[in-house]
């Protein structure tokens, strides 16, 4: 039996109308911020764009109750706090053509806006030449009051140079999403995975990640530690001791890569594949499949490789705007570059 609603005659289509702006923004936010780790990835990239050398992450209930990130970057101008959480507000580009030379992580001006549409967002920021920090609260992209009757304008407060962003009650207004993400352990593991991968790639930045109710941090890398040391902290001694350095430059495509990959004697039962393209953590199934197929012929039966690749491609040859979360990218000369790897 059909389950379709047959109450309306097929000959009379429903009228088309414009969606309310709040509905549009919440739908867009749900596409970009699919789970707490997506929000964290966007916030980490903002911190790195701000020149941070120290990033501290605190999590409660898998990021659903609280996801907080603190950095020592250059902060946000007080004059920009009124619009920083509006959609499509950015300092990274002005015209579409700027995308062809983009060197920063963020560019669309949707990360903070999206998070503010699905959480209660508080931002505290201080620039080095400012006498004090400023705290602002946001909902649905706009400044809101901390308490009824108070001003919604950013308020001066004590604070260190840099920015603290706290997203509370993530997906409080999208009940289906929140119900689907009720396993706090899985969400924290995903958060740790994102944080640890960026820590490995950004060895010049100190990363800390911990649960709010835990005194000890699960991730604690030091500024200036080597990539190998950071791999050792995250994946253990055996993974770090079996690594071989690889590097290559292709004059024809202008692409180059460096990396650390496991040798043929490496024994690990789960594959680890870390791929950064122009310093952005991404997925690429073609590269992953090609590398794993190669390892399948040389590694012991049942063992899986560890692969960390830092791939640099001319910005004009990369399309970073093909996926809402920027998790996937497309690039020219893909077959040639994969062959080089």
From TrEMBL:
MF (Gene Ontology): ATP binding; ATP hydrolysis activity; ATP-dependent DNA damage sensor activity; mismatched DNA binding
UniProt keyword annotations, A-Z: DNA damage, DNA repair, Nucleus
Major location (coarse): nucleus
Superkingdom in the source lineage: Eukaryota
Annotated GO CC locations: MutLalpha complex
DNA mismatch repair protein S5 domain location: 231-340
Stretches of the chain forming a coiled coil according to its record: none
Gene Ontology BP terms: mismatch repair
One Pfam family matching this protein: DNA_mis_repair
NCBIfam families in alphabetical order: mutl
PANTHER family on file: DNA MISMATCH REPAIR PROTEIN MLH, PMS, MUTL, DNA MISMATCH REPAIR PROTEIN MLH1
Protein name: DNA mismatch repair protein
């Amino acid at each position: 039996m059909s389950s379709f609603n047959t109450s309306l005659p097929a000959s009379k289509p429903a009228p088309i109308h414009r969606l309310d702006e709040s509905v549009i923004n919440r739908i867009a936010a749900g596409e970009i911020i699919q789970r707490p780790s997506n929000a964290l990835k966007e916030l980490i990239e903002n911190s790195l764009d701000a020149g941070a050398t120290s990033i501290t992450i605190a999590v409660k209930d898998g990021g659903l109750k609280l996801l907080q990130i603190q950095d020592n970057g250059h902060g946000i101008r007080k004059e920009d706090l009124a619009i920083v959480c509006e959609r499509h507000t950015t300092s990274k580009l002005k015209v579409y053509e700027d995308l062809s030379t983009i060197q920063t992580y963020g560019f669309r001006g949707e990360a903070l806006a999206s998070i503010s549409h699905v959480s209660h967002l508080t931002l505290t920021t201080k620039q080095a030449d400012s006498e004090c920090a400023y705290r602002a609260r946001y909902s649905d992209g706009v400044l809101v009051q901390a308490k009824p009757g108070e001003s919604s304008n950013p308020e001066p407060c004590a604070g260190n140079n840099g920015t603290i962003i706290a997203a509370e009650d993530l997906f409080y207004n999208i009940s289906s999403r929140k119900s689907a993400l009720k396993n706090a352990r899985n969400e924290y593991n995903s958060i740790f995975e994102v944080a640890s991968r960026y820590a490995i790639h950004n060895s010049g930045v100190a990363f800390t990640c911990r649960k709010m109710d835990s005194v000890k941090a699960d991730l604690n890398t030091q500024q200036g530690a080597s990539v190998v040391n950071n791999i050792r902290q995250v994946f253990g001694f055996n993974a770090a001791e079996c690594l071989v350095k690889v590097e290559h430059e292709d004059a024809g495509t202008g692409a180059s890569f460096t990396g650390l990959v496991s040798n043929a004697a490496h024994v690990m039962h789960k594959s680890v594949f870390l791929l950064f393209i122009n310093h952005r953590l991404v997925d690429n199934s073609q590269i992953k499949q090609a590398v794993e197929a190669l390892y399948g012929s040389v590694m012991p039966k049942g063992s899986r490789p560890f692969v960390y690749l830092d791939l640099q491609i001319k910005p004009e040859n990369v399309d970073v705007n093909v996926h809402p979360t920027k998790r996937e990218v497309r690039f020219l000369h893909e077959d040639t570059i994969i062959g080089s790897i």
